[in-house]
C-alpha cells in the first residue's frame, strides 16, 4: 500500500423487489488511489486529522474518476 491514499466510497441503494422485508439493501464500492502523484502527503491535506482546503481541491476530481471506474449492470 502507498504511504498516502485517497479513497472514495460509492454507495448504491438497492430496492427489494422480492418484498423480503429485510429493509434497505446497499452495495458499497471503495475506490482508492495513491496520493503521491498529487505531490501532497496526508499531513498536507488534513488539519488535526480532518480534511482541509487542499483536500477540497482534490476531492471532486477524485470522485469523478471513481464514478467512471465501475460499471453497474442489472441482470
Relevant terms:
two-stranded antiparallel ribbon; 28% helix; 75 residues; 32% strand
Q: Would you mind describing this structure in some detail?
A:
It is a single chain. This protein has 75 residues and is of the alpha+beta class. 28% of the residues lie in helices and 32% in strands. Strand 3 and strand 4 form a beta hairpin. The chain has a domain of 51 residues.
Largest sheet: 2 strands, antiparallel
Termini separation comes to 34 Å
Helix residue percentage? 25-40%
Q: What is the N-to-C order of secondary-structure elements (H for helix, E for strand)?
A: EEHEEH
> How many alpha or pi helices?
2
* Backbone CA Rg: 16 Å
Instruction: Tell me the strand order in the biggest sheet.
Output: 1-2
Instruction: Sum up the overall morphology in one term.
Output: elongated
- Overall average residue pLDDT: 87
Tally of DSSP β-strands: 4
Q: What would you call the structural class?
A: alpha+beta
Strand content bin: 25-35%
Low-confidence stretches: none
SSE topology sketch:
Blueprint: E1 5-14, E2 25-34, H1 42-45, E3 46-47, E4 50-51, H2 53-69
Antiparallel strand pairs: 1-2, 3-4
In summary, what is this structure?
By secondary structure, this protein is α+β, with helices and mostly antiparallel strands. The protein has helices spanning 42-45, 53-69, and strands at residues 5-14, 25-34, 46-47, 50-51.
Amino acid at each position: 500500500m502507498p504511504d498516502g491514499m485517497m479513497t472514495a466510497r460509492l454507495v448504491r441503494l438497492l430496492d427489494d423487489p422480492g418484498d423480503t422485508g429485510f429493509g434497505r439493501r446497499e452495495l458499497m464500492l471503495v475506490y482508492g488511489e495513491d496520493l503521491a502523484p498529487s505531490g501532497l502527503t496526508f499531513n498536507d491535506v488534513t488539519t488535526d486529522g480532518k480534511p482541509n482546503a487542499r483536500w477540497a481541491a482534490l476531492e471532486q476530481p477524485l470522485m469523478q474518476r471513481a464514478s467512471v471506474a465501475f460499471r453497474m449492470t442489472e441482470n
